[in-house]
Amino acid sequence: MSTDSMSIKDILEWYIWAGVDETVGDEPLSANAPVAAKVAEPRPLPVINAPKKVSDESEERKATTELAQATINACKGAKDICAQVKTIDELRSMVEAFDGCALKLTANKTVFGGGNPQAEIMLIGEAPGADEDRMGIPFVGRSGHLLDKILQAVGFSRENVYITNVLPWRPPGNRTPTTAEVAVCLPFLKRQIELVHPKVIVLLGGSAANALLDNEDPISKLRGKWLDYSTENKDVIPVLATFHPAYLLRNAAQKAKIWSDFLRLKKKISS
Ligand code: URA
Description:
This protein is α/β, with parallel strands linked by helices.
């Protein structure tokens, strides 16, 4: 049978019948070729993935270094701004104009602090949620309504407090902020504290507590006792950490603890 009259299927079947069931290269090898010639011209083993992997790794390393450098630059930019501003309104305008945090690209509004900038009590949450992002005001959603009720129960209202967040922009889908995002925005929070100069600070939830107190302790360990926060000017402000109202909405059983924390706050302010 000549190959001219054979179909490809016939040829493959013939190969299989003859025991040829594996391909070893693109070029046909003659069984009659001199052995020496075969040994003298070894075909390099096809190494397909290794070089790409090396370049993937170096690309990854380059991207990580660039991101770290961008974060360092953004932190420095934020600190430089904070060193210049003298009033809370100036700080608000500067934060609104700041482009060093990528969260701003996905947020609708910059949510700066709200309430009374002359208040004795400063409340600090984590970051705006969907409602705050829409309105540009902190704590106006479900958590905010619960917070208003708690404040009311101990005799306070929004006029008695200044409310802000660690981050002035909503993380997409309310995800937990990254360490880099917190690091870039923290100078703005610290400057707000200096400019408002409250008598006491209440940290709402673990993220705010860890960011300002610079630790990783769980909120269950931090809450319920007076701690100290030192400003850059070395003023010491008493700080009380407590559960975030959003946590309370999911865990009503913790109501008694948040209630006792706000009574502790009331006592401190009255003293
Ligand atoms: N949760 C926060 O931490 N801050 C807000 O402003 C709203 C919800």
